[in-house]
UniProtKB/TrEMBL annotation:
This is Methylated-DNA--[protein]-cysteine S-methyltransferase. GO terms for molecular function: methylated-DNA-[protein]-cysteine S-methyltransferase activity. Keywords: DNA damage, DNA repair, Methyltransferase, Transferase. Coiled coil: none annotated. PROSITE patterns: MGMT. PANTHER family: METHYLATED-DNA--PROTEIN-CYSTEINE METHYLTRANSFERASE (PTHR10815). Gene3D superfamilies: Winged helix-like DNA-binding domain superfamily/Winged helix DNA-binding domain. Signal peptide: none annotated. The keyword Signal does not apply. The lineage of its organism: Bacteria, Pseudomonadati, Pseudomonadota, Betaproteobacteria, Nitrosomonadales. GO terms for biological process: DNA repair; methylation. The keyword DNA repair applies. It catalyses: a 4-O-methyl-thymidine in DNA + L-cysteinyl-[protein] = a thymidine in DNA + S-methyl-L-cysteinyl-[protein]; a 6-O-methyl-2'-deoxyguanosine in DNA + L-cysteinyl-[protein] = S-methyl-L-cysteinyl-[protein] + a 2'-deoxyguanosine in DNA.
Length: 168
């Protein structure tokens, strides 16, 4: 009985993603619920891939691949992401930043009558990166700022890759 319980946990963790798509900087773990995209996780590049398990996961992968091929691609997906009113406002502002353009935490804070750190926290809480392009938000001095609640390491390498990709 203990063995089957352990297998169930493994099976449940496998089922938590509806697809795992290889990108140049990570494996993108795609989570969906019903007709909604709910999360994209950056997984290590050696994570086993998973073919789309649903029609929506297939469409999410198709659109992510289109973006990886053409940085000006505009996503058209139904998103479901829970957050505070402030976070929702920040995410809406971020989605308005065009590919190849950046905005600072301070600029978004001014636009929303907020504070730069609060904008940064909302960016860090974003569960649907790339589609909600928090990588386009940088420090006021032109530096990268943070990414995925980190100020160094692999998350910043991902942010650099995404910004370079969109500047070509």
């Amino acid at each position: 009985m203990g063995r089957s319980t352990r297998n169930q946990v493994v099976d449940d963790s496998i089922k938590s993603y509806q697809a795992k798509l290889l990108a140049p900087f990570a494996v993108l773990g795609i989570r969906t619920e019903e007709d909604w995209l709910t999360a994209i996780d950056y997984l290590p590049v050696d994570t086993p891939l998973l073919a789309p398990q649903t029609l929506l996961a297939r469409e999410v992968c198709r659109q992510l691949q289109a973006y990886l091929n053409e940085p000006d691609f505009v996503f058209d997906l139904s998103l479901h992401i829970s957050g505070t009113t402030h976070q929702q406002r920040v995410w809406q502002a971020i989605q308005a930043i065009p590919s190849g353009v950046t905005s600072s935490y301070a600029e978004i804070a001014t636009q929303l009558h907020s504070a730069p750190r609060a904008v940064g926290r909302a960016c860090g809480a974003n569960r649907i990166p790339i589609v909600i392009p928090c990588h386009r938000v940088i420090a006021k001095n032109g530096g990268l700022g943070g990414f995925m609640n980190a100020s160094e390491g692999n998350p910043l390498e991902i942010k650099r890759w995404l910004l370079r990709h969109e500047s070509t």
